[in-house]
Amino acid sequence: xxxxxxxxxFITTPVSWVIVQFHSLYGAIFGPDTGWAxxxxxxxxxxxxxxxxxxxxxxxxxxTRAMQVLQPEMKKIQERYKNDKQRQSxxxxxxxxDAGTNPLSSCLPxxxxxxxxxxxxxxxxxxxxxxxxxxxxxxxxxxxxxxxxFGAPLAAKFTxxxxxxxxxxxxxxxxxxxxxxxxxxxxxSQFFTQRQLMTKNVDTTVKTPFMQQQKMLMxxxxxxFAVFGINFPVGVLVYWxxxxxxxxxxxxxxxxxxxxxxxxxxxxxxxxxxxxVSHTGKVRRRSERAIVKAxxxxxxxxxxxxxxxxxxxxxxxxxAQADGTVVKSDTAAAAETEDGTPTTGAPKRQQPKRQSKSxxxxxxxxxxxxxxxxxxxxxxxxxxxxxxxxxxxxxxxxDAKPAAAKKAAQKPGSGxxxxxxxxxxxxxxxxxxxxxx
Length: 437
Known about the structure:
By secondary structure, this protein is mostly helical. The strands form two sheets. The protein has a two-stranded antiparallel ribbon. The longest helix is centred in the last third of the chain and has 30 residues, at about 355-385. A hairpin with a 5-residue loop joins strand 3 (about 320) and strand 4. Helix content is about 65%, strand content about 0%.
């Protein structure tokens, strides 16, 4: 332990100083020897550390988004080398190197918290053993040993014996019940954080090492917390439970407002965005414009949720632009009414006005009269054109051609034989005999 303490001595003194400053603040409110003063000091230390790690968290989000952009290329590599796992891994690593990203970047916040975790563990362990650490002097050490959180001393562990717990002014039952509940809550929060990442914010169409890593962490971390938690002091359990709750809330915010393309979270996000845009006709925030811009830039590479979003805007008479804004499409502009009121769909077909019975009868009589007059005029003009005045004598009588045509039609010759109807035999048909009753 002395070797580990010497390794983290550069961070132990600042951590103890921050705890003492928060203790002086909360001690003036709740009392210097209370568990509320020391417990809230540890919670405030977590909040301060996580605020300082926000730039690292933003970097993690950008790295995760870079991994999402590489999803189509990963899918191609998997299909191309599906029978050669070694070559597939080599091509994946080459792709990560060219893109400047790494699937292990999701572990950066955890790795960055490790020095603070070990420093706080060493400080609380010193309180349990009665050793002064950093800026914690004898007076503060005595005050911290008197502090209890729900009946459990701040420096007590689940594995401590009855004699050690009695020296800290508590019972072994209280210590084990409180520590067991905190270990369960700590493991459950860690499991839920990883599970919502796997079930809501992962593109399930592509199987990547990143997904396998997250699935492994979903089961490994809760087990690790459950195993090692029995050796953590109550103050360290408070620290780790607080940071797990912070991580869970922070991830829920990211999943809701910046989901992974192709995930269930993106489907829910685009549904909410469509309802807002179709109602107001515009995109309200910069982050939403960035997502719409990315969807438009994909073109034919859009997933099913993004195509549904674009098609919904089209049906609503809107069109997404390359800069992420949404404007009214040409179809909706043509469908505006005469008074300038815009419509959200195609123009409605106007129904003809209903006429009364007398109007319909009058219209029918007028139509019949017009038809009769037009037919009489056309017949008179036809008779005038069909009888021209001619002084030349025809070489053949007028009745010759009709008579010859009639005779040829009646003669059953080979050239004039009528074709048999479908279903009948060729040639003369024998008359059917009358049926006998």
